[in-house]
Amino acid sequence: MSNPRGHGRSDLAHRCEGCHPVVACVPGAPYGAPMDVRRLVVALERAWDGARLRRARSRTPEFFRIEPYIGHGGPAGVVVRGRVLDDPLETEAVDGEGVCASVRRTIGSFLTDELPGVPLLVRVGSTSVEAASDPEGYFVARVPVAPDDLTSPWTQGTVALHGDYRGTTGHSASVEVRVPAGDARFGIISDVDDTILQTGVQRVGRMILQTFAGSALTRTPFPGAVALYRDLAAGGNPVFYVSSSPWNLHSFLLGFLRHRGFPLGPVLLRDLLGTWGGHEQKHDRIREILDLHPDLSFVLLGDSGEHDPEIYADIVREHPGRILAVYIREVRLDPGDGRVEKVSDAWGPDVPFVLAADTEAVRRHAHGLGLL
After folding, report:
1. Are residue 279 and residue 246 in the same domain, yes or no?
2. What is the distance between the alpha carbons of residues 359 and 229, in angstroms, rounded to a whole number?
3. What is the pTM of this model?
4. Is 1 among the domain residues?
5. Residues 166 and 233 in one domain
6. Domain check: are 159 and 251 in the same one?
């Protein structure tokens, strides 16, 4: 959501400024709020952004910032995403800070002043392509990089302002691109909320409280998850984190992964104003990973709380021979609802499926398959 800083605040933004989690505020909307609430939030967001942009068209950005996200690719090409904002850098969480500091940081990640139509030049290796930010400030670039220009596990690139934008010139930012090694045995595609990060998506009040009041330093992974993911990634196997959380939480999630010692990799999220549940966008992110890394097979990890079982079933059917195993963490309030079991048999016996409430069961099965 937009923060016009000095140009007035919407009532919605104003209600979110306190030190309590507010259920009706925008950051709670992506996580299971009723459909009519989400539609209202989106309508307010678009109306507010339209008014803000009309006022700001001729204004030189005060805090122009290019924020690239971790990219990924290989011989089939590279994808780089990011956002262009008129905002200062987010503050980082520090040990011992109060709840109010965490709340302000989380709300600030949604009250952004995004910049549309910014001309950009994205360069990876010796190849560059032009791109432009969309109405919400996001950009995506597909760079046909020569394989000789890519180094594993990371290749550095740049995203630069290409020309003038409202009197601003000369800005650039570096971007890291995850490049799997040729001898990687497989890749790992993992959800985040309730898969590695204890969130409680099915308990909306508790989830909102944790989202607002916690930080990258205080949020808790599931027991054993860090060790499992590090063992799965051993030998250079790349990890891709794909979540229905909004891009506004990218910095938080990346900070959580770094602080807890998870193997780093691209964190692929969704636009807050995108498809209602993020369902199709999550499909598309996973398909993109498989398309960009055609020589890799994959292990899929998710949870039973939302749509991971259905999404993963679709992926298994669409990509025969590419999926080595599917692991689903059991977090349902009603484990007997039959929803997960209905899709777990949809692809036949060739792809192992494990539904487990604890990490150790997943570890034992993965060890038996020779994945660890």
Report:
1. yes
2. 10
3. 0.80
4. no
5. no
6. no
